[in-house]
Structure formats: C-alpha cells, structure tokens
Amino acid sequence: MPKLDLPTTSRRSNSYSNASSTSGTLTATDTAPFMDQTPHALGQVQIKLIYNLQMGCLEVQVVECRGLPHFGKHYPNTFVQISLLPEDGYSEHSKVRTSLRKRSFNPVYNEILRFHNLTKFELDERYLQIGVWHSEAFHSKSLIGECFLKMADYPWNYLDPIWISLKAYPESVPPDPLHVETSRGTITFELRFEMKRTMLKTGDIHFLLKSGHSLCGHPPILAKMPFAKVQLVSGRKVLISARSCLAEFPENGFRPVWDYDIVIQEQNLKKLRKRCLEVSLWDRESASNRRYIGRIRFRISESRNVEDEPQVLWKRMLQYPNECIHAELALRG
C-alpha cells in the first residue's frame, strides 16, 4: 500500500511550478530529474477525493504530477488513468482518464474524474488504481508508474490534495485480494422479447416487474415507496427510459408488489446484442428526493470470462423470442 504524503501547506513549492504544464515549451522547472533508487524515482501524483452526496458519485480531482522520469529519448507526454477495483462490469465504474499533457516532467491537469452510482459505504471496500502513462506515436502507450489507494485509508476530513508516490507495480494487480459483497434486496420479474416482424427481426422488450424482497440498498434502510427505472443503453448513451409505478405492500414492509409491465418498443434483435437493459430500483422519500437502492444490467459482456446470471438471461431472450423468462435476481450496487 503506498504511503500518503500529506503536504504541510496548501501552497505549492516553488521547485514544482506549473508554468509550462500545458505548453510544449520547456522551462527551468522541466529539467529531467536524477534517476536514482529513492521512493520518488518514478515521480508522484497529487489527487483529492470528494464524495458527492447529492449526485451519488465519487469525484477524483487529479491536480498534477511532479518529478516524472525522462522516458527513453522522449520527454514524457502523460495522462493519468484511474480504475475502480474490483471491476464490477458497469461502464461508469470502468477506467477514466485525464486529457494529455505534452513534454512536461511536472504536468498540471486540474481535472475532475467521476465514478457514478456509488454509495459511500461501497467505497470503503474498494481501491483506486492510479496510473500515469506516457503516450507515444500511433496511439501506443507505456506505463510510467502507478499506485493503489484503499478508500478506507483515505483522509476524507483532510481538505488539501495529497501526494502519492508512483511505483512499478505490475499492471492491474492490486496489493492484496479484494472481494465486495453487498445485499440490496431481490426482485422477481419476467423478461420477454415479443417478435412483431419476423423478417426484420424487430419487436418489443417486455420487462414485467412483479415483486421484491428486502429492498434496502446501503445504508440498509428499508424502502417505503420503491419504483423501478428501466433504460436501454448503447455505450454511454441512453436510448430509451421508462419507469414503473410505486409499489404496494399487501402483506408487510418486506415484500413490495408492482405487477407492472414496462415495454421498450420497436427494437432489433441484432442491435440488442450490443445494447444494455439497465433496471435500477429507487425509493421515493419525498416529492423531490429519491434514494438509489440497486440495479441489474442485462447485456452481453465483452469479456469472455465473465458470464453472470443477467447475461445468461439476456442471451436466452435474444435466442428464443416470445419465450417468457421467469427469474429472481439480487440487486447490485
């Protein structure tokens, strides 16, 4: 685990001026550092973490790097790439990166990168993998150095950015094993593709939301007025969005019932293989406020080694149109 270097003052040292961070002109501050075996031989990166409670997301402010090494015969053309570990298959939790800074040993970014739809509780069980990369010609890249930061170890009450030393870790290998297990409740539903035009292979997606059990999310507060939002997504673009009615509780507060059919009309079977159906559950706390509970994503993963139950159901729906698929699945963060 990398040591967090907390600065003694919020003012930058004169030896690491950012006068030339965004230009191609080298100044006296951009001289190549002496390559030795000290902990800072690969340089340092300065970041600040903020949990945005209103948006429900983690904000990573990438401030700058300093003391980066001379990269072969090149001055470093760098960007900072950040991943949230362990990977959970959600696009908004995947890698994010800054823009490129050219020909600088002390590049300044001052950019905010975001990971959406996360609770503060979940962050305490995760890591950030922060890598500084050198970009070469023809879109190739090489890792300069990286660090791993455990969310539970971050000084959230500290207002200033922190410096972390870069090390030569193997790429994508966290310092120790990590497993995240959460319980947000379950939903029972039926999934079906109703074929309307056989020749064109087009029809409607039916998601019949039937009932739920112990919908709470994190922190574990039992939902009182839960509803579902269904989105058809292509890449990062939301194509269609719909929502259910509020649930009723005919028996007790643990088993909400909807029996509500959400229909996504006029879809092509072939195109659906590259699209994602995201079902998210929310609790309406007031007329203007809602609390995120959890979600399920139906899609075909790009990774051949990953095939969870929602992916199996999505494949079955595409393979057998008009078949009604009954299932009960646990919500994820």
TrEMBL record:
Residues 41-164, 183-315 form the C2 domain. It comes from the Eukaryota. SMART domains: C2 (SM00239). Residues 8-25 have a biased composition (Low complexity). Pfam families: C2 (PF00168). InterPro entries: C2_dom, C2_domain_sf. SUPFAM superfamilies: C2 domain (Calcium/lipid-binding domain, CaLB) (SSF49562). One of its GO terms (biological process) is exocytosis. This is C2 domain-containing protein. The lineage of its organism: Eukaryota, Metazoa, Ecdysozoa, Nematoda, Chromadorea.
